[in-house]
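[step 3/7] inverse_fold.run input=structure_tokens len=192
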């Protein structure tokens, strides 16, 4: 929960930890799996993989793409050690192994969610004025999107590219006029 993602040194302003990243990956993995017409059960497995995919980093730390060119980390040992004393540890270890192999449709959805979550963060930060994040996000369409494993992830990436991260709430609460009262200072406080 407290392990920061190390891309902060290159990206500058950022708002995530390994835990928040994994949570977002899990939700996205479920959605991508369902978009790929997988069952609820398979999508739930993709969600599980999303939650577990970076758990080893609680022991190894998070290595960004620069560090991975120089450092070697034994993530397999970290995963094995994390789960070795659990009666059900082999089940969890198996989910991580399936994710790493990327042989199944479920694992491919989870991996694409991992990639899209990184892109999502870059997208939000670029809208907040982070020029480095904008550069990374634009670079992802050259270097990352062509290698996504599912059509649904590619579709989501393209939709993200052409959208505004604030549009959903702006449209819901401002354009539709759902709740203007609190903007004018007359919210839920009753006159006495």
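[step 3/7] decode complete -> sequence:
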């Amino acid at each position: 929960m407290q392990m920061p993602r190390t891309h902060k040194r290159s990206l500058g302003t950022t708002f995530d930890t390994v835990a928040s990243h994994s949570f977002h990956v899990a939700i996205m993995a479920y959605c991508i799996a369902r978009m790929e017409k997988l069952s609820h059960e398979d999508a739930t497995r993709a969600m599980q993989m999303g939650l577990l995919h970076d758990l080893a980093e609680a022991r190894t730390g998070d290595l960004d793409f620069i560090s991975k060119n120089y450092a070697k980390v034994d993530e397999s040992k970290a995963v094995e050690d994390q789960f070795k004393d659990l009666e059900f540890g082999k089940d969890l270890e198996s989910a991580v192994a399936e994710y790493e192999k990327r042989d199944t449709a479920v694992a491919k959805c989870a991996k694409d969610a991992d990639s899209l979550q990184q892109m999502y963060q870059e997208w939000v930060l670029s809208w907040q004025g982070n020029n480095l994040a904008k550069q990374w996000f634009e670079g992802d369409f050259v270097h990352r999107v062509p290698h996504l494993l599912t059509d649904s992830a590619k579709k989501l990436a393209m939709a993200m590219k052409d959208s505004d991260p604030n549009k959903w709430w702006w449209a819901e609460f401002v354009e539709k006029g759902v709740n203007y009262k609190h903007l004018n200072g007359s919210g839920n406080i009753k006159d006495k």
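[step 4/7] annotate
DSSP finds ten helices and no strands in the chain.
The chain has one domain: 8-184.
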